[in-house]
Amino acid sequence: MVVNSLVHVNECGLPLNAIEWLETHHASKAREREQMIRDLHLKAGSFVVDAGCGPGLWTPLLARALGPKGRIIGVDISAEALVTAQRRSQGKSYRHQVQYKCAALEQLPIAPGSADAIFSANVSQYLPEPVNTFAAMGNYLADGGRIVIKDIDFGTMRFYNVDADLQTRVLHAREDWERVRVQEGYAFEDSWVGSKLAGYLRAAGYENVQEKSYRILRKYPLPENFRFYLQGIAQWFVCEGAPFLSNDDTQRWLQCFLDGPHNVLDQETFLSEETEYIVTAVWRNRPSSTVRYFDLHHMHLQPQAAI
Ligand SMILES: C[S@@+](CC[C@H](N)C(=O)[O-])C[C@H]1O[C@@H](n2cnc3c(N)ncnc32)[C@H](O)[C@@H]1O
Questions:
Q1: Tens-digit pLDDT profile for residues 176-222
Q2: Strand partners, 211
Q3: Which residues share a beta bridge with 274?
Q4: How far is the CA of 36 from the centre of ligand 1 (A)?
Q5: Is the beta carbon of 78 within 6 A of some atom in ligand 1?
């Protein structure tokens, strides 16, 4: 059993981006995601960009937080995601408050300095130059406006009833593969980005950078949606031929997660852990000549303490 092809790929070629995958992932972490938005204390009536909105899954949460006078623009480079987002909003109470537009993060379809906040969930992992992208996004924020970047960090993933050495080898093999996969013709990915976000935002020129981490624990018996999520993740870890992992480890890993007698998901001892990060920061307008551009090699990217 070898997973050669990309897993749950969308029309832009990004793995784990197919609509069904995103919807199931969202549903499987609904509790934590609702809490994440509540914790942001977004200002009622404000104007928020959902940058890389995908199929619009965060829109209802954002709309609820912003109240009836709030406005949301969801942008994405995937036409399929935008059509799905548009369809999802039809008939909803927030329909008149939201627009979806095709655009990249660096070139938002709004006036510079006009957004009260830019929210971006699970997108930074696909940014080859995150510091430059975050700096470009800052120009669309009002003076004192807030950027909110949420993302995963698979370095934090643990399965307590899976051989610890096997997990370490699988995670390291994927991390090593992510460092070189662009040279092999695959799209950029950094699935270890969560704990680096605070450093990136400071380097992009933001102030008052604050990191909050959310521990996602799930135990037996697993809901169907989380099972689907984990099975996709497990395959994704060893997809594209897993060039830095032995065939034996690949088989053992897949046997742990796919349906069969060695499946760990159906064991009463099953417990999984993962930490996701939300980093918020404030943008202050300044003359463009003072915007700093940074050499990533000289940055200190130490994870910040959770608050
Ligand atoms: C993993 S999905 C996350 C979608 C949504 N934010 C969520 O959490 O459900 C990543 C999304 O980012 C979009 N994306 C990736 N790079 C982008 C870029 N440079 N500009 C705009 N959207 C981008 C993809 O098309 C995809 O819909």
A1: 999 999 999 988 999 999 999 999 999 999 999 999 999 999 999 99
A2: 279
A3: 216
A4: 18
A5: yes
